[in-house]
Amino acid sequence: MDRKEIHSRTLANGQSLTSPVFFFKGSSTGPKIYIQASMHGAEVQGNAVIFELIKYLEKNPPLSDITIAPLINPYATNLKLGEYSFGRFEPTSGRNYNRYYFKPNHEQEMMIEQFASQHKNKEWSELKSLFKSFIINLAQADQKGEYTHKINHQAFCLAFASDICLDMHTASHSARHLYTQDYLEEESKSFGIKNIILSPVIKTGDLEGAFVYPWLRLQQELQKLSVKAPLECSSYTLEFGSQERFSLESAKEDLQGVLNFLALKKAIDKNYSSPKEEFHINTFENYISIYTPYAGLVDYKVSPGQKVMKGEVLAEIINFHHLQTNTKEASQLLISEYEGVIINALDSSIAHEGVEVFRLLKS
Question: Do residue 214 and residue 319 come from a single domain?
Fold first, then answer.
């Protein structure tokens, strides 16, 4: 295992914040793997999974090159407001740390078209290596001074040198779930995570989508030139439960799914086990935000991971301003309009009108 420190941000007092990146050299020519955690600073459970993975790889050297970047955004991890870690948004700009990865603009899209035309006759392995360098150079040139943009592009360049990207997150108060592209539906089951949210490959600002999109564009341009090119990259956002939680015991269970995926990709010397779980799979369009039309103190009646029916009570909300003659006036029920699985809930019982209190994946 090799290690290096990458600089992320210099603070006003001159202190330099850095992150460790670990490199495991594979013994064969399997797909290269990139894994990161904590781009959102309060989402730390992925680091527990990474710690257990590093322990495993110390004893069981991988077949593929694996690059691991825990605590990729130390500035976000260090931002504390009382007991709360303010780690999802950059405090000066208000920008989400997971929305500014490299997205080719029109000029860069044209450069991908030119790249395909110039290299169409090369062997796929050589073309793929050249394309990785080409896109990384574009992303480095595109990097702006604003911190969110910089940290996202820095991570993108680390990731795009690989063939497979695992971006580890958590949500507010959440069941385990994952996001990926629709062409990876069957492969995604190897993690053993029951709740799977699928999207088409489109130009997005998150790492999962940003990692795949350039390869789709290359494939499209080569197809125009009558050259077949496989879309063989894989990219996942893995949501390991709730923010502000770090459990090595839970991580040992989560690790088994990650190892099973790595076995499927022949990145480690381990037998792959076909998943036997019953999965709940739907598209991102059917991943519904539920906002409360009421304000007050929330008594949650359902929990993340729980299946609910249309018409079921999700929460009771108490507002003392409505209490005039009896307590019924102060109580309002939030009713589900859908059948599905509760994936995420607001991590607070204090809710203003119009706040998102649940995310539900429709059946």
Answer: no
